[in-house]
Amino acid sequence: MSKPAIEFTDITDVEYTLCPGDDPLIKERVLATDPATGIATRILRYEPGADSTPMGVQKHEFWEEVYIIEGSFTDLTLGQTFYAGQFACRPPGMPHGPWRSEEGVTTYEVRYPAPAER
Any idea where the ChrR-like cupin domain is (predicted)? Predict the structure, then answer.
């Protein structure tokens, strides 16, 4: 299985839904997903004051690339704030977060599988 083929479409037609953890201030707009693997492309939005501390430090079994479209958020483990225009590329297993955003933040995120080891 893989992500579906999608021609250009207006992403505002895709509703925001709660992310895992059910914090009403943290939502995602899933643009494309592979239901078998959970690999996805999404817009992630933290409303002002959102804090993902209850989710703890995150580590994934997939690659994750994140571009900050607007706003900022702070990685509480690193004690570092990241801003619009910045980009991250995280290999599988790279720890990150939890996050807090005072002003709110919107990111574009692409997840893809790690290649099988040879």
Answer: 25-108
Percent of the chain with pLDDT strictly greater than 90: 74
Which of 90, 59, 53 minimizes the C-alpha distance to 74?
53
> How far is Cα 12 from Cα 33, in angstroms, rounded to an integer?
17
Q: Which helix (H) or strand (E) holds 1?
A: none
Amino acid identity for residue 87 in this structure: F
Instruction: Identify the sign of the CA torsion 103, 93, 60, 21.
Output: negative
**34-38, 79-83, 114-118: least confidently modelled range:** 114-118
- For the stretch 33-80, pLDDT in tens is 988 887 899 999 999 999 999 999 999 889 999 999 999 999 999 999
9, 21 in Cβ contact below 8 A?
no
What residue type is assigned to position 57 of the chain? V
